[in-house]
Write a structure and sequence with these properties.
single chain, alpha+beta, Nucleoside Triphosphate Pyrophosphohydrolase, 4-stranded mixed sheet, 28% helix, NUDIX_hydrolase_dom, Cleavage and polyadenylation specificity factor subunit 5
């Protein structure tokens, strides 16, 4: 796998626990209703996610978030209408995995600031949600001219010694790239495509 930026070992990073991060919806039907309301108010929803690669025991691994011991997702999330994809992704990463300035001790804040911030690199894939359902596609079907959501996945460079503050109701896993290959049954089509993206 070739990149034009350094990939650091997993053991270079510290992980601490922070307060739980509440989910917006209690059920799939609640989420669909919220999607419809948001679409009527501001149009197509945009989201950005981070493809973060580290090494562990000599193999490339992808950092993923597991929510409530259930599904896996890449770090990131939904953007405000006024945010660019790149700036919004940094904001979501800081909200989701950043050290909270209001509660963290000064030495931890100083260490994390010294380490540096996330660096959003190139967009490596785009996914479309044509309808108000759970399905994303790596293309926009020709019969759908008004998708309900677009998701962009960006390579994100980690500075050495970054500190991750993981919400108590989530887990941050490093999954080996070879485990994702052809494994849509467990991780979904986006994750199964990551080995192909990284091999380019």
């Amino acid at each position: 796998m070739r990149t034009d930026f350094p990939i650091c070992p997993l053991q270079d990073y510290m992980m601490i626990e922070r307060e739980s991060q509440q989910e917006e919806d209690n059920s799939v039907s609640d989420r669909l209703e919220r999607l419809k309301l948001q679409y009527s108010e501001s149009g197509m929803r945009r989201s950005a996610e981070a493809l973060i690669v580290v090494t562990h025991r000599g193999f490339p691994h992808v950092l993923v978030v597991q929510v409530a011991n259930a599904f896996y997702k890449l770090p990131g999330g939904y953007l405000d209408p006024s945010e660019s994809f790149e700036d919004g992704l940094i904001t979501r990463l800081n909200e989701q995995l950043g050290v909270p300035e209001s509660t963290a001790p000064n030495w931890l804040l100083a260490r994390n600031k010294e380490a540096g911030d996330w660096k959003v690199r190139e967009c490596v894939s785009m996914w479309y949600r044509p309808n108000f359902d759970t399905f994303f596609y790596p293309y926009l079907p020709p019969q759908h001219t008004h998708p309900k959501e677009i998701k962009k996945v960006f390579m994100v460079e980690l500075p050495p010694k970054k500190i991750f503050a993981v919400p108590a109701n989530m887990k941050l896993h490093a999954i080996p790239v070879y485990e994702l290959y052809d494994n849509a049954a467990r991780y979904g089509p986006l994750f199964a495509g990551i080995p192909h993206i990284l091999s380019k």
